[in-house]
Amino acid sequence: MTTKPTESVTLHMPSDVLAQVETIAEATERSRSQIIVRAVRAYLLQEGGDILNAIEGRAQIAAGEYEDFDDVIAEMDQIIAGNVA
To answer: What are the pLDDT digits (tens) for 65-79?
Structure first.
């Protein structure tokens, strides 16, 4: 198994949140870091993922990598009408 490189970060969080992390870590026999990394990964799959996708989409638009919506609708209309070459 290959170990992924890691970096240290300093994190300030409310005491009640840290207490919950510690309770979960103890109950699951995992470290606080493992619990926090899993929480961040879950965030990146949800809300964070939406933000990253929006950033990527804006970059694609800026690079000219997009389709005009009206052209897409016109092509769909042709497909539906059976007029595709």
So the answer is: 888 899 999 999 989
Q: Name the pTM for this structure.
A: 0.63
Tokens of 53: 């996708």
From the DSSP assignment, how many helices (H) and strands (E) are in the chain? 4, 0
CB contact burial 24-52 (16+ within 10 A = b; e otherwise): bbeeeeeeeeebbeeeeeeeeeeeeeeee
CA distance 28 to 34: 10
Q: Which residue, 44, 42, 47, 19, is CA-closest to 32?
A: 19
